[in-house]
Task: inverse folding
């Protein structure tokens, strides 16, 4: 596998379910990101991890819980979601995440989540 | 607050046409601007990255320009092909330390 991979590619869950999204990067990067892409809205940054430490949390509801066990893996744990949480969830990685210096981000294919 | 707008939201052209996609941003204090391509249900593929000190970047049939002072960028696609059909996203990186995206332009190139 190369680049950034995400599993599953599609997920349908009920509002009371607990599920997890997985992201893995094979680029040797130190920073990883979760984005949400809803229909007819721009991509929204959710979380940023740098060297396995969360450095950004953009007012995301607590029903979304990220986890970064090492620099290659990133998870998004989902619990008690709402139908409006249905979206494409994209993972990205970059070499570093150093303040105002842009490190090019590389994106995975996304997980299409549907909440019933 | 930085806002990025892309016009038009959707575009349909016959194969072979040259076309221009537009991106505007409200805060000109950016460090760079990036154009991405997104195929339906897929992730983002980077097309061109323009640093704030640059005026344009070219890759094959694609040319992106940047005018920081007016808060605008254009993506020019020459001799469009059906395989160019996708959503094109513009994103800027500035003093928020984040990529701020536009909503995208969905392009359909008809054979």
Result:
């Amino acid at each position: 596998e190369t680049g950034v991979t995400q599993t599953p590619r599609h997920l349908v869950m009920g509002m009371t379910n607990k599920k997890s999204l997985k992201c893995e990067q094979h680029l040797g990067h130190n920073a990883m990101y979760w984005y949400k892409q809803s229909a007819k809205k721009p991509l929204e940054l959710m979380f940023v991890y740098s060297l396995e430490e969360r450095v950004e949390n953009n007012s995301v509801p607590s029903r979304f819980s990220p986890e970064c066990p090492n620099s290659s893996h990133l998870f998004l744990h989902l619990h008690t979601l709402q139908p409006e949480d249905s979206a494409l969830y994209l993972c990205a990685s970059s070499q570093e995440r150093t303040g105002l210096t842009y490190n090019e981000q590389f994106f995975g294919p996304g997980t299409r989540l549907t909440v019933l | 607050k930085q806002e990025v707008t892309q016009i038009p939201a959707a575009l349909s052209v016959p194969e072979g046409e040259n076309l221009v996609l537009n991106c505007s941003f409200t805060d000109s204090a950016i460090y760079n601007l990036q154009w991405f391509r997104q195929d339906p249900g897929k992730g983002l593929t980077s097309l061109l990255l323009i640093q704030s000190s640059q005026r344009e970047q070219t890759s094959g049939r694609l040319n992106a320009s940047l005018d920081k002072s007016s808060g605008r960028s254009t993506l020019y696609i020459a001799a469009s092909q059906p395989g160019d059909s996708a959503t094109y996203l513009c994103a800027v990186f500035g003093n928020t330390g984040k990529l701020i995206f536009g909503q995208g332009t969905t392009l359909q190139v008809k054979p």
Notes: DSSP finds no helices and eleven strands in chain A.
